[in-house]
Design a protein that fits this description.
167 residues, mainly beta, 1 helix, 40% strand, globular
Length: 167
């Protein structure tokens, strides 16, 4: 049997770390610890995960695509867009869905939001991929929810349980 270092087993189940070339990522300039989405033929079906490391020499990113893994990510509270800009916002609560938002209008280094569609509209071509769900990172974090408010744009550092591969 040949050992595969990209497939590990832990007490939490199968851990999946996989290398992807920059050219196959929604954001072709990846940064460690950011959310990532792999390009797909069908918009909204992208494989998503968290970037663990990058190899600039080989232009590949090592991404954790483990289902149910929890990482801290910056999440924008935008719900909808209109005329290519953010239109509505809402408080983010435990269990809320988080999407990999491909919108060009998102603040720099923010790739996740609560909007199921990007800034270009609600057509099937503008569906954002489901990245995961908001979870508290510890007992003290539970008491801080919800984050943000209706009618006010904001970003928040939150625990996100990622969908990953096999979710």
């Amino acid at each position: 049997m040949v050992y595969n270092p990209d497939y590990e087993v832990s007490s939490e189940g199968a851990v999946r770390h996989w290398e992807f070339p920059y050219a196959r990522l929604e954001n072709a300039t990846p940064v460690e610890s950011e959310a990532a989405a792999v390009l797909s033929l069908l918009v909204g079906t992208q494989l998503t995960g968290t970037i663990l490391s990058i190899d600039a020499v080989r232009s590949v990113a090592l991404i954790d695509v483990t289902c149910s893994m929890v990482y801290r990510h910056t999440v924008r509270n935008v719900l909808t867009y209109a005329a290519n800009v953010e239109a509505t916002w809402g408080p983010i609560n435990i269990g809320d869905p988080v999407y990999y938002d491909r919108s060009a209008t998102m603040p720099a280094t923010v790739f996740l939001s609560t909007s199921p569609f990007d800034n270009l509209g609600v057509a099937p071509a503008n569906v954002n991929a489901l990245f995961g769900h908001v979870v508290p990172v510890d007992i003290d974090d539970m008491a801080t929810f919800p984050h943000g408010a209706a009618l006010v744009a904001s970003t928040h550092e939150l625990g996100v349980m990622q969908i990953g591969a096999g979710g």
